Amino acid sequence: MKQRKVPLRKCVACQEMMPKKQLIRIVKTPEDEILIDLTGKKAGRGAYLCGKDACFKLARKNKALDRALKHHVDPEIHDQLARDFAAAEEEFLAAQGSADDE
């Protein structure tokens, strides 16, 4: 049987190429709403981050999300994303653990 190609994406903070399933997607919807997309299927422009808190902080520091999303990300939105990221990180890591078991 032929091997399926694994899609790779680059973390906007650390610039490391990883399989798409190991990254968390942040999306800017057509309504200019910025949120975390764990499904990876929401419509809009996406940016990928490692599941690490350090990468999120680095992306905020060097405005990597602003560049990747081609939209200014307000400090309030960064704060909201930080809270969502902490919750999503736990859910993401739990999903990673269950996927590794299979």
From TrEMBL:
It comes from Paenibacillus terreus. This is RNase P modulator RnpM. Pfam families: YlxR. Residues 9-82 form the YlxR domain. SUPFAM superfamilies: YlxR-like (SSF64376). InterPro entries: YlxR, YlxR-like_sf, YlxR_dom. Signal peptide: none annotated. It comes from the Bacteria. NCBIfam families: RNA_bind_RnpM (NF047356).
